[in-house]
Amino acid sequence: MPVSDRRALLASIHDVSPGSERQVDRLAGLLTDTLRCSRFAMLVVPDHWGRHPIRSGTPFANRLRAWSDSGIEMFVHGWYHKDTVEHQGISGLKAKYMTASEGEFLGLSYDEAARRMEDGRALVEDIIGRKSAGFIAPAWLYGPEAMEALRDSSFGIAEDHMKVWIPQTGEVVARGPVITWASRSTARTASSLAFAALARQALHPLRTVRVAVHPGDTTKDSILSSIEKTLRRFARSRQAGSYRSLMT
Question: Gene3D superfamilies, alphabetically (predicted)?
Answer without folding.
Answer: Glycoside hydrolase/deacetylase (3.20.20.370)
